[in-house]
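Hi Prof. W.,

I finally got the NISCH protein prediction working! I wasn't sure whether to trim anything, so I left the full sequence exactly as given:
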Amino acid sequence: YPSEFLMQKITEDNQVPVHLHVSVSLQYVAGLKGRALVEFFHSNIAEVENEELRHLMWSSVLFYKTPSVEVMACVLLSTKAIYFLLDDSFIHADEHQSDFWNKENSDCENSSFHLSCCFLLKLNDLQSVNVGLFDQYFRITGHSADHIVTCLTRDSYSTHTFIQQLMAVLSLLARTPSPEPVDKDFYSEFGSKNTGKMENYELIHSSRVKFIYPNEEEIGDLAFLVAEKMDGLTNLPSLNILLYVLAFQVNHTEGSAQNTSSLQPKTLILTSSDLFLFDEDYISYPLPEFAKEPPKRDKYQLADGRRIRDLDRVLMGYQTYPQALTFVFDDVQNQDLMQNLTLDHFGE
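And this is what came out:
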């Protein structure tokens, strides 16, 4: 029986982000409180009788096999596994997923019975956890391509809390100890690292699960990539990335019965001179060990870029988090007005 504090905490965490749409089945889960939520977990989701529910989180998730489909999920962490309770609309989003999901309950589609898929990753199968830049997302990797999931929390606090809870649960696992390391001499220890590339920070947990954090070089690589996209408008040493945040671009679709807005996931990068929107691959990098070829697309693909000097005004909505910002730029694109005026005035 969970403590009152834990039940209160899970109840508080059981809130769907207001800007994301979920199906009826997940709305039912979001309405559960306290003991009803724990009983729902044990009667509908838990694999074994003696596992305990330790943490609950709502997040967008991406699967390695379907990198283009972001879906809302209720993530449940127990002492045995991580469960992803998925929106049922995900199953119909892509015809290529039929092999992945093996959906058999198609006869329920037209009834009032609401079906949810539950994806399970046992803690014993967990190999590594990659934390994204500025804790905006994290990727969980198992032993095959079917067992790689990225949680796009878009929130450093949610990421940090989940990682802490996961480490605590992994500490309870009884795994066979690692073999004793062989003593290395000085030269073999330091002479083999002549690749010139700094490795990411790795923390190997007592359960032998690796927690991998980005290093400063990733920011340097990103700054270099951003400078390339700017067509040499600025010199690289003075380029500083001031902000990196996972956001949504709002696309209004007019003409329908009601003006609706679709949210396109984007990575927003702010430098001292420009504002960029990138399409980022959150699931394929760094390459998993079993990958035989590089991903089909680059990690960062430029979607839009504007100069700060062309920014006319910023409109802020008054709603609570997540905040909506509208950036209004001048119509004149990629033209240095002062330079052109000077040429007209002083030229032949």
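Residues 156-170 form the longest helix (15 residues). Does that look reasonable to you?

Thanks,
D.
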